[in-house]
Amino acid sequence: MNAPQKLTLGLVQMRCSSEPSVNLERACAQIEAAANAGADVICLPELFLSHYFCQTTAIERFDLAEEIPGPTTQRLGQLARKWGKVIVASLFERRAPGLCHNTAVVIDADGSLLGRYRKMHIPDDPLYYEKYYFAPGDLGFRAFTTRFGRLGVLICWDQWFPEAARLTALQGAQVLIYPTAIGWHPNEKARWGIAQHSAWETVQRAHAIANGVFVAAINRVGHEGPSDGGLDFWGASFVADPFGTLLRRGSHEDEELILQECDLARIDETRRNWPFLRDRRIDAYAGLLRRWGDSDCD
Question: How confident is the model at residue 100 (pLDDT cuts 50, 70, 90)?
């Protein structure tokens, strides 16, 4: 049976507490609300089960990791099957003792674990010390055929890399989905906040244009960390169409359920008029495999 030509995205923009069981229950309630409101594909923010713990390096934080499949995927699978909806969720994956990944799972509408994507680009910046916790992904860039369409999933820092978006789109993705945990350093917000948010949104809208796909980014909101520091997560979860048009955006402060219908016929329509995939010079891109310059010695 052919997948429908339209799907409705449900982006769960939420605050996250320090208690995983509380976050799971709140996320499940929002998933049910999204399903009841007509969402076909329901997406949660990056690492939604806890505070964004990568602000510090603390060995006890590894206790938050869980196996996949595991208790959370089982619970989400039950919800997906109950409502006949697809769920995309980002988890702290415990692959083996001492080996963890930042992993997004795709659960199909029958409740089955369709697959996983392990975050490929791992940041190491002030308050984003992810290299301490996560090994880089080793599954490559992936797209998943679900009941409602073919979804490509990437995670947060991957948002800034056009190569990641392109390679996922070349797997046939119709929608690029980015579970996200991004915010302002409070002491930078006044000076740089507008520009930082604009750059983040602009680069992802550019991925939509360059690849002729829909793009959805799902962020958390609220302050996490000490009152005189930490991060102000800026929300603003959004959906853009293959022309880069911003179809829907959440607020910077509030928890929201963002619903947006996506007409997948727009992909073909846009690519006919902007045939970027046709005009790619795949014979001339070998230089992308170099770190810099004309040779490995530069």
Answer: very high
